[in-house]
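Bug #77: duplicate submission created two jobs. Keeping one. Sequence:
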Amino acid sequence: MKFSFLFFTLVSLCLGYEAKVLKIIDGDTIKVLYKNKEQTIRLFGINAPEKKEPYFGKSKQILTKKINRKKVEIEHLYYDKYKRSVSKVFLRNKDISKFMVKNGHAIAFRKYSKDYIRDENYAKNKKLGLWNKAQ
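Kept job's structure:
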């Protein structure tokens, strides 16, 4: 009995879990509700503008429109120094970090991942989002 509980717990951690998005902090950080507890999630592999930086409002607005109040799949990877869960977040099997970078609303965070460099180059070449000097 203990083995099966442990096995299913480990499998669910590997496969991720479903949570409801409560709030968008900025273009790379969200608050979710999981098992009646609020968690802060840092989107893996990306970096979005901070509050006093250009494009902050637009980046936050786009992420809000995309996932706020929706159920998402969370794939926890590790905790950062601020005790946030650094995670991959999916909406209907679509990677939200990829969406944010490919559309120019965040940049690939090369220090931690190479996953989204192609998406960033795509956004740069198409002059999307923060790469559009007209914005």
